[in-house]
Amino acid sequence: MQSKTLGSTNRMATTIIGISGISGAGKTTLTRELSKSLKATSLFWDDFDDISTSPDDYVAWYASGQGREIWDYPALARVLETLKRGKVTKHPVLHHLLKPTQYVIFDAPMGRLHQQTGTYIDLWVHIDIPLDVALARRTIRDFEKDPRSVPELLEDLQYYLNHSRNLFLADEEKKGADWILDGMFSIEEQIGVIKTKLI
After folding, report:
1. Does domain 2-198 have CATH number 3.40.50.300?
2. 169-180 b/e with 16+ CB inside 10 Å = b?
3. Is-above-0.85 flag for pTM?
C-alpha cells in the first residue's frame, strides 16, 4: 500500500474513512470487516440508492461527460454531516441508530470525487485491483444471485468489452486517494495495513 501526504487527524473527533474501488474490488467486505475490527459505525452507499437520484444508464452518463453531481444523495450527506458533528442519528432507510464512533467506515465508491458526500471524508482509501479479477468477481457474484444462460453471460461480457470497460479504470480515484490499498491482499492483510497506518 502506498501512502500520500496526509494532514493530521484529530483522534478525539469522529474520523470518516472512505473506501472506494471499482465494482468487484471488495469495498463492501472491507467496510464491513474493518468496522468490526475497529468497533466503528459503517455506512454503505447502496443502502441509500432508493431515496437518492442517480443516472439510469451509467455508460450513457460516462459518455456524456456529466459530472458526479448527478448522483444526488442528500440523505447520505446529512448522515455523514451529523456523525462528523458527534451526534447520534437514525439511518433513514434501515432505521437503526448510527453512533459517532472514533472512526466511521464509509463505503464510498467515488471517494471525494462525489463532492456532496466526499467533503466529509477525512481519509480516503482506494482499493486497487486488476480489471480481470474484478470482472471475474462481479460475474461470479451476479450469476450466483441470478443464474443465467450461457448466451446471457456472453452478452454481458460483450457489453463489458464494447461499452462499459472504461467505467472501471478508476484513474481519477487512484490519483485522488490518500492511500492506495492492494486489493489482492487478503481481507485480514488489508485491515492490518490500514490499522498500522492509523496508529
Report:
1. yes
2. ebeebeebbbbb
3. yes
